[in-house]
Design goal:
By secondary structure, this protein is mainly alpha-helical. 62% of the residues lie in helices and 4% in strands. A hairpin with a 5-residue loop joins strand 3 and strand 4. The N terminus and C terminus are likely disordered.
Length: 380
Amino acid sequence: MASRSLGGLSVSRGGGGKKSLSARNAAVERRNLITVCRFSVKTLIDRSCFETIDDSSPEFNNFAAILEQILSHRLKGQVTWFGYESPRSFWDYIRVACRKVSQNCICSIENMENVSSSRAKGRAWIRVALMEKHLSEYISTALRDFKTTRRFYEDGAIVLGEEANMLAGMLLGLNAIDFSFCLKGEGLDGSFPAVIDYTPYLKYIQSSDSISSDEEELRTLGSSGSESSTPENVGPPFLMDENSWFNKCKRVKQKYQLTLEQKGYLEELLRLRENQLSESVSQNKILLQRIEDSDLAHKLEKEQLEYIIVELQDQLKSYQSLDQLSAEVSLSQTSLDPGQLQEGDGKQDTLNLMSEGSQLFSFSPSKLLLQHFGLDEYHW
């Protein structure tokens, strides 16, 4: 690198200054596009509160132009067999990088009959992705495929820098908007590049320490020809500000009306839920009363069953005692003298009666023993 001195000033000749200037221009270009994209997303969200966003909305047309410029920033051309480089569209990159998205719309856009050019297909993809609420997902998936992104873009591109993560994050807010587009309109015309309108995002606030003001400039312009031509009454310098305040008041009124309608809807919904809650409480009380009645009936049935079980146990014990008594009587009868057995016809009848009584529970064990031995209970 050579340098020479001109009047004490050193002037250098070389590529260092060009490289720094080129890097500065690229950084400014990336920052401008990302900043304008953020503003356009905010304006889209604000406009969606009052009307449906479609192809006729200037906010959407500007956003689509900004996104197209971002995705086309430093996009490589396609080198042919003869060494010539033909221009590409961002759709060529999206078509390859977004195929991993589940249920993507790539094939449906490729098969559109009324969309032929690559640029028109890219614009159709932006609209379909917005209606599907998957634009941020498409961009995030494409940026994660760094190998494909590197193959399609040059160094210094927005999608290769740190601004790419900001882009995917700011597009996430568009999922809350319901878009409605016609895929056969003039917005898909791919013969002309998109142009960004920067005027909605430009706002100059004059400093209080400024030397000149609007009134001073008007006086200077009026007195340039002659002093008599100076206007005596200068119009209000903030006419545009009044219009902007009027528009703001109108928007606030529309927001108030929308909030009021939402408030009425929520109050009606709350009233409905309170009625449903009171009905549920009353039904719950009825069910609790039924449960208590069922528990009481089950307790009574349980007590009755226990009483029946006790009675059956007592009867079973009496059966066992009678069987034991009959066994003892049979043993005593076999041990008696055979001569005495001839005298005991009446005793045989007594034994028969005793066996019948064991079945009918008509005689007690004590009476059976007295009758068996021929004794009266009074002599006992």
